[in-house]
Amino acid sequence: MATAETMLPTSPTDGPSKRKRSPSPGDSEQPPLSRRRSLSPPPSRLVEVPKVVDVDPARRAERERQLAARMAEKELEKLEKEKDGKKEPAFDAQAEFAKLTSTRSGGVYMPPARLRAMQEAASKDKASAEYQRISWDALRKSITGIVNRVNVANIKHVVPELFQENLIRGRGLFARSVMKAQSASLPFTPVFAALVAIINTKLPQVGELVLTRLISQFRRAFKRNDKIICHSTTTFIAHLVNQAVAHEIIALQILVLLLERPTDDSIEIAVGFMREVGAFLAENSPKANATVYERFRAVLNEGSISHRVQYMIEVLMQVRKDKYKDNPIIPEGLDLVEEDEQITHQIQLEEELQVQEGLNIFKFDATFLENEERYKQIKAEILGEGSSDEDESGSEESSEEEEEDEEAAEEKQGIEDRTQTNLINLRRIIYLTIMNALNYEEAVHKLLKVQIKEGQEIELCKMIIECCSQERSYSTFYGLIGERFCRINRIWFDCFEQAFREYYETIHRYETNRLRNIARFFGHLIATDAVSWNVLDCIKLTEDDTTSSSRIFIKIMFNEVTESMGLKTVAERFKDPEVRMSCRGMFPMDNPKDTRFAINYFTSINLGAITEEMREHLKNAPRIIMEQRRAMLEAESSSSDSDSSDSDSDSSDSDSSSASDSSNDSRRSRHRRRSPSPRRKDIKPARSDSRTPPRRDRRGSPSPPPRYREKSREREHERDRYASRKDSPPPRRRDSPRRRDPSPDRRDRGSTKGRPRARSPPLSPSPPPRSRLERRSRSRSYSPPRRGKETRRDDSRDRDIEKPRDDRRRRSVSRERYGRR
């Protein structure tokens, strides 16, 4: 039986397109019962048509047919070209580059190597549009790069580089780059204004274009109520006015426009504009400046704006009162233009402005080469470059010396960096690292990787403290960072101690919130022993050595320490000998006034437990002061007594009337025993007849100075001398009790009222009155002050010797008084 396989013709092309069936087990040599037509031979060239995916079968068939027709046409074209013997043209780099640059989007992606090849091929013809387009792109990139890296330090070096570029052709690019860079970084506005002022002196059309575009941008932003663009634009215009690029009339017109219909945004912009340009207007237009401030005051009195903006106006008034000390006309280092070279543009706010937006776009220049040559001449005039070959070449030796000098100057510039650019960058890196950290461990780990030069470790500590102070409330995140750094290395430990001393000395410069955060930060470090308690030696807790800010700082810091450690632990820590030595300034004991102040201060901040020692000292202070004064007085009296004893010994040898002196002395001593003068309660009775004043009790008030005691001795001496001339009654018995009558003389006078007055003894036996110096020297010579055992022995000897003398004196006096009766 015949199979399908035997009926179909076999061909080598049918294999992949036809499906074969498995052969039957029958004999394959038998002829088939019926024959089919054989297939046509395959074509010599096959065109593979891709399959089209479509849901509709009719549409799919039509699309496949059209696709097959297009591919067949391409194949026919190739066959015809092969028959004719023509080859494909080679790759035209110039044409491809022209096609690439002519498209709006810049064309498709091109590999860099192929792009460079295309640019090299296109740059062979410098008059072509492709070359001009390449030079335009290079000019745009160069101007943008130079403008973006200008600052106060390198502006003198950047300006020559900027003049190397064709600023006349690229003035639109320069204006756009400067305005974009200034709006992105407002603190650098004075630098960009100085750069425009320098270029304006040589190329005034560039400065005029920048000013025109700024005024146009302000007008558009003011109409759109775009506060951000208005603020940046007015700031730039203010600094151009300060640099004399723009006339002050434009500043006054802007202020009038902003203050005409006051709103919160317009007043805020006007205040910021006035802070920048106010110093210039006060110096050059004082009347207009006064008018503007009168308008500000009127707006403030109207009260139609919010309290925040009213406060801004008040701050502006204070800035004016301080004479704009923080907003000078031209900052230091940016006064680079001489007054004779300044070119001022008088552009009005309401006039028609030619912004020339077409200068930002590339346009083909038919006279490109001529314009380039012309700018080279202008550049040579601006930069002072010589055109002759002699000036350019010079001798080889001189050129080598100049190169060496330039290298040495570059090295010196690299060593002496006074711009603090690197320091600012370091602080920025530290700040960003801290802000981007999730926890304190990550922050410490990242900060340790920051490359810090030797000697700049203190900057890291200060940046951590400054970041902590800027928070609204204290975060332990910063305290844990500082604690970890102090425990890692001794260098950070010393840096944080140094920072504590510096911040304590300048704490009065910080506002209350920042002060509180700094105090709690250092309180955390002290409570955790991250820094030593020896840092407290810089604190002197007296009324004169502290301010209100420092007292608040100490209070908040110790409250943080007490919360962490507990009051009992803090009191025990202050009893440690090492801590007590370091904290002597906090516990003053030299002056009772300072001690009392410290006690009151610690008690007011709930730290009275640490003032026990000072309270005990304050109780014993009077006794200690008395002892010190007594020691000083004894030292002074001993020195004076030694001098007086020498003078008394000399005078006693030359005295001829010693007997009369002794009798007079005996009368005085006897009268003193019989009629004692009233004594103070704190003075004990004298032990001998000597005129040494009795010792006072230690608990009593301090003894008066020596001169008062001498005066009292003189008064007593005079009273005894005059009383000795009267007739005294017979001596009383010692056994009779004494009355506490303070005036015995009055009692005697009353008893003798009715009797005739007794005659006083003759004045012949009494000696003439002595001078004060003799009485003082004699009274001191009788009893020298006690100094020790030796002086006591000498006193006892003198008393034993003087006893018989006193007895004889008493007998002679009694005979003289009562012998006549």
Automatic annotation (TrEMBL):
Entry's Gene Ontology molecular function annotations: RNA binding
Annotated ranges, domain MI: 425-541
Compartment(s) where it occurs, according to its Swiss-Prot or TrEMBL record: Nucleus
Source domain of life: Eukaryota
InterPro entries per record: ARM-type_fold (IPR016024), CWC22_splicing_factor (IPR050781), Initiation_fac_eIF4g_MI (IPR003891), MIF4G-like_typ-3 (IPR003890)
Disordered: annotated span: 1-66, 381-416, 632-821
Record field: compositional bias (Basic residues): 668-678
Acidic residues: bias regions: 387-409, 643-653
Cellular component aspect of the GO annotation: catalytic step 2 spliceosome
PROSITE patterns given in the database record: MI
Gene Ontology biological-process entries: mRNA splicing, via spliceosome
Keyword terms: mRNA processing, mRNA splicing, Nucleus
Main location: nucleus
Start-end of Basic and acidic residues biased regions: 51-66, 679-695, 707-751, 787-821
Biased composition (Low complexity): 654-663
Keyword Nucleotide-binding part of the UniProt annotation: no
Known role: Involved in pre-mRNA splicing.
PANTHER family on file: CELL CYCLE CONTROL PROTEIN CWF22-RELATED, PRE-MRNA-SPLICING FACTOR CWC22 HOMOLOG
Similarity annotation: Belongs to the CWC22 family.
Protein name: Pre-mRNA-splicing factor CWC22
Organism listed in the record: Trametes pubescens
Lineage of the organism: Eukaryota, Fungi, Dikarya, Basidiomycota, Agaricomycotina
